[in-house]
Task: structure prediction
Amino acid sequence: MLVLDGCFVLELFRGTVEGFTEIGYARNDPVFAMRGLMHSIQRDMIMLENQLPLFVLDRLLELQLGTQNQTGIVAHVAVKFFDPLMPTGEALTKPDQAKLMNWLEKSLDTLGDKGELHCLDVFRRSLLQSSPTPNTRSLLQRLTRNTRVVDKRQQQLVHCVTELREAGVKFRKRKTDRFWDIEFKNGYLEIPKLLIHDGTKSLFSNLIAFEQCHIESSNHITSYIIFMDNLINSSEDGALSYLHYCGIIEHWLGSDSEVADLFNRLCQEVVFDPKDSHLSRLSGDVNRYYNRKWNVLKATLTHKYFNNPWAYFSFSAAVILLLFTLCQSFYTVYAYYKPNSKL
Result:
């Protein structure tokens, strides 16, 4: 079964790079000529339970080419093959592809033939190509800590979008291809664009499952999903509409309620410690900003009394009128007490 499936995967990768008609397949081939079926194959191959060890694919490629030391080639092609599943909504540009391939050459070749590596692991590493690897201390903590399934209250990293906006936190799209790379500075929560389609739930579910099964991996994807779940309580509070307005979330689903339900269900029954999250420091900064009463007061004044340009004009006119009234009152009182004085 490993040989049969491995040969199919290699032929699929080869056709993706060279073209299926160029390697001898007919234009009406029942598998490789159907674009819709190819998308289904990509989604099926990314599932955790369908993974083939990467060393098996490397060994089959060596037998096919008749040469040794082909480690890394399959990983390179796998990244290109699974590129349509990228949740950023945009295909990699040529500079980004060159950067990614350079990263693969430096990192994947040093991994060697390790049986736990597979296409899902490669795809996840390509998503997290510039993320810091967990250090030895954090790994030791994860191995020795009595981890358990935590409830929703312990997964609360930040408040929802509606509450953060009421506290003066502003949202805007961050220009980066790393969807998990969120920043907070000067009251602005910058979140990269995320594209949600019918395969997003399956993709994130398998990435989370991989992080849950491999204790030595980081929990970047799990942290990101829980963070977004905290921001989106439901479709009724307007959070999704606002994030869509900011260009942060784009979805091809039927309604906003389906998107909210997707995030609310993804991280149920997972082992997660907020202290191990790469977003824990950012969440602390956001929560401290949220707890400052001055920010809440300033945001309340802005939302209720200065929510349109005419409000600023009215306020300015009122201030000017008040100053003139004070000046008039001053001159009236001054002339009453000192009638012979000249100003």
